[in-house]
Amino acid sequence: MALVRERRQLNLRLPLPDSSERRRFPLPLPPSSITTTSNSTTLAASDFEKLQVLGHGNGGTVYKVREKRTSNIYALKVVHGDSDSDVRRQILREISILRRTDSPHIVKCHGVFEKPCGDIAILMEYMDEGTLDNLIKNQSKNINMNEELIAKIAKQVLQGLDHLHAHKIVHRDIKPSNLLVNKDVIVKISDFGVSKMMCRTLDPCNSYVGTCAYMSPERFDPETYGTGGGNYNGYAADIWSLGLTLLELYMGHFPLLPQGQRPDWATLMCAICFGDRPSLPDSVSEEFRSFIECCLQKDSSKRLSASDLLLHPFVKDVDYSVS
Questions:
Q1: 71, 91, 125: which is the final residue of a domain?
Q2: Domain shared by 163 and 252, yes or no
């Protein structure tokens, strides 16, 4: 539910998973109070002061909040009680996945609760620079989006994806507005509303959910680019989305279309499935060029996995710190 820059207008959502997929993913309601991991104290919504709105979207709101007793700052993601059942199902899906993950590269969930009015909320760590969308928009503000910085971002997202994929979770909506960042350029994956828990390591996907601008070719045409039978490899699809995101960071705009173009669904599909990979300037290092090529292979079987990409020369020796 992060804010998306108006100038790109690429947040083109597709339908939620069908009912058969929902039945395979049990989603228990959260308790009516939360227990923070820091002090093991049971808290209620009244224990937090709303400081500002961080974003709107998909039936809910994200707030910057302060715990009154400790003054600790958090992000509170709230889906309103009058939201339709699909939106509520999305946040319950996200809660279920966040409870299964424990990685410094995935946004931390401190607790969940259902308010008396029917709102469902997730209390999460606060990332003070917002999303990578903000980083792109603010490149003029002392942020030099060079290869070194992109490599640091790439390694962190890869480690987050490697953790998710090892736990048989595919994100299905990797994009700049779903990657949170703080002032030290520590990056964490967020927004798991359309993610999927796989029954088996190579369990195929067949639901058209997410943001179509960042979808891989096999998600539009699995017969040509995927595993066939109307399915696609969700793990490989996440890698495509990462490659496109990194290319956008480097170029400063969505890379598959001319800057400023307002796309529709058909234009995006044609650009993704039939367009050439964006050309990079000669000044780009061979390591970066190779890394992007490994991510943006149209044939999904030729894309490297997250664990393999972590060994790529572009990111292998990258050093950063995570608090």
A1: 125
A2: yes
293 pLDDT band, cuts 50/70/90, is very high
Distance CA(79)–CA(57), nearest Å, equals 9
Amino acid of residue 46: S
What is the pLDDT at residue 159? 97
Residue 173 a catalytic site member: yes
The residue with tokens 């339908």 is 15
Question: Looking at residue 111, which CATH number applies to its domain?
Answer: 3.30.200.20
- Residue 165, C-beta contacts closer than 8 angstroms, at least 6 positions apart: 235, 238, 305, 306, 307
**68 labeled part of a ligand binding site:** no
Catalytic residue (choose from 162, 173, 191, 238) = 173
pTM exceeds cut of 0.85: no
CA distances from 287 to 69, 185, 243, 248, 278 (A): 49, 21, 13, 17, 16
Three-state secondary structure along 154-197? HHHHHHHHHHHHHCCEECCCCCHHHEEECCCCCEEECCCCCCEE
Q: Residue 47 has what DSSP assignment?
A: G
- Determine the straight-line distance between the first and last CA of the chain, rounded to whole angstroms: 24
